[in-house]
Amino acid sequence: MADLKLENITKRFKKVIAIENLNFEVKNNEFFVLFGPAGAGKTTTLNIIAGIYTPDTGRFYMNGKLMNLVEPAERNVAMVFENYALYPHMTVYENMSSPLRSPMTHITGEENIRREVTRVAEMLGIAQLLERRPSELSNGQRQRVALGRALVRKPEVYLMDEPIAHLDAKLRHMMRAELKEMQAKLNATTIYVTHDYLEALSLADRIAVLNKGQIVQVGTPDEIYYRPATEFVAECFGDPAINIHEGELVNQNGDIYVRMLGQVIPSKVPGNVVQKLKAVGRNIHVGIRPNDIQFYLDGPVAGTITGKVYSFEPLGAKGVLNVSFGNELLRIKAPVNTQVTPDQPIQVLINMENAIFFDCEKRHFLARSEQLGEDSAWLN
Ligand code: ADP
Ligand code: MG
User: Ligand 2 centroid vs 39 CA: distance in angstroms?
Assistant: First the structure.
C-alpha cells in the first residue's frame, strides 16, 4: 500500500537542470510509467523517489509523509535497473533469496524463504532454474532473476528503470506481456521507466511524458495517444510517427474543410471540432497517423486525393509508404507485400474524423473528433 506525491521537485547537477518543477501523484497500486527520450530526467526522478538523490527544491511524500530526509534503506522501495547485477558465484536461488536475509525483512526461517522465492520464481517462469548460476542463463532469464530479486521483498513501491530495454525485440515483446500479467498479481505501486512508446501504452495505468526535465502530459494511454497535449507527445507515440502538416480551414457552402498538401481534403471537419477551432483562426497544424490513412492504386475512388509514390520501406511485418504531394511527404502504413514503383499515381483517403488539430505557434493540442471511439488502436 503506497501512494506517492512529487511536489515542485527540481534537481540540478552543476549547470544541468536534470528535472525542473516536477509535479505528479501516483495512486496506490497504480502502474505508472515515466516516458521520455534519453536525458529527459527519468532516472533522476526514480533516484529521488528511491532516496539516492535529495531534491534541490520541492517535496516528496509517501502515504502523506514527507520523505525528503528519509534514508533509502528506510523507504521500502525496490529498484530494478536496466543493468541487472547478479552475484555470479551464487545460484539463482541464492541470488533471489539474498534480499530476504537482510534484517529489514520480516521473513525468517529457510522454509519461509524458500516458499517466497518459489512463489516469485513460478510467477516469472524460472522455477526450474533455481540451482543454476547466472553464467548458465540467457539474457532474458537473467533479467527475470533480477526482477525476481526485487519482487521477493514485497516492498511498497517498485521502481523499474528500463528493465527490459536491452533485450532483443522478440524477447521484449514477450516480457511486456508477462509484465502486464505480473502487474495484475503484484498489487503494488510501480513506477516504470521506458523510452519505448509501445511498452508505455501497453503497460501503464497512467503515463507521465517527460521532455528536457519537465512534464509535458500526464494521462491514461488513451488520453496520451488520442489527445496528445503537444505535437512532441503525438510524435513520440507511434512508429512511423504521426504526419503533421500545415493546414488552412476553408468554408465551402457553410461546411468547414482543410486545405493541406496543396489541396482541399474532401472530408468535412467534424462539427464538434469546428466549434473548438473557432477561436484560433484559419491556420492550424493537422496530425494524421500513418495507420489512419487508406490508399488505392487503381480505379477512381470517391473522396480521395491523388499523390505520387515517393518510396516504400518494408519494416518487419508492416511497411511505410511515402507519398509526395508537391514537396510534402505523407507517411502511410501499408502491408509489407505492397507493390509500387516510384512516381506512380496513388489515391489517398484522409478522414478528418481521425485528425488531431494543433495550434501552429505553440504546437499545443486543440481538438480531435469526439465521434470516434478511443479503441486502443496502437495494439494492432
Ligand atoms: P534519462 O533517465 O531520462 O535518460 P537522466 O535522469 O539520467 O535522464 O538525466 C537527465 C539529465 O541530467 C541529463 O542531461 C543528464 O546528463 C544529467 N545527469 C543525470 N545524472 C547526472 C549526474 N550524476 N551528474 C551530472 N549530470 C547528470
Ligand atoms: Mg535513464
Answer: 7
Burial of 198 (0-12, 13-18, 19+ CB in 10 A): middle
Q: Is the CB of 52 under 6 A from ligand 1?
A: no
* pLDDT tens per residue across span 44-72: 999 999 999 999 999 999 999 999 999 98
**Domain 4-230 maps to which CATH number in 3.40.50.300, 3.20.20.80, 3.20.20.70, 3.10.20.30?**
3.40.50.300
Query: What type of residue sits at position 353?
Result: E
**Three-class secondary structure of residue 46 per DSSP:** helix
Q: How far is the CA of 364 from the centre of ligand 2 (A)?
A: 26
Of 105-114, 234-243, 247-256, where does mean pLDDT reach its minimum?
Answer: 105-114
Average pLDDT, the chain: 91
Distance, CA of 347 to CA of 343 (rounded, Å) = 12
> Nine-digit cell at 324?
509526395
